[in-house]
Design goal:
7-stranded mixed beta sheet; globular
């Protein structure tokens, strides 16, 4: 398993942007699919975005499609979540997740058991 550490969260106003980063330990980062999930107070954790090991395929929740972009830099063992046009309903703790798999499509990753999780980073969007 990899160890994951998220950063980049904070408090912003509606319409602002944030970029979250997740750094993974270990030497096999390029063998892992990566995902971002979030959990708002009183709600279940939900899928946000995912990316395949190569970065060749991505998937997004409908609620963030067109506003959020997931990307990765395998040389830096890092996955990013660029969040634009933030809304108050985006307020949540955001978690990075990893699963060692070489599947080439991200479309079903929202239902995948990722296995490794970070500690989370808080994003708060005020209206």
């Amino acid at each position: 398993q990899v160890q994951l550490v998220e950063s980049g969260g904070g408090m912003v106003q509606a319409g602002d942007s944030l970029r979250l980063s997740c750094v993974a330990s270990g030497r096999s980062f390029s063998s892992y699919a990566m995902g971002w999930f979030r959990q708002a107070p009183g709600k279940e954790r939900e899928f946000v975005a995912a990316i395949t090991w190569s970065g060749g395929s991505t998937a997004y929740a409908d609620s963030v499609k067109g506003r959020f972009t997931i990307s990765r830099n395998n040389a830096k063992n890092t996955v990013y979540l660029q969040m634009n046009s933030l809304k108050p309903e985006d307020t949540a703790v955001y978690y990075c997740a990893a699963k060692r798999t070489l599947i080439t499509t991200a479309q079903a990753m929202g239902d995948m058991d990722f296995g490794s999780w970070g500690q989370g980073t808080q994003v708060t969007v005020s209206s």
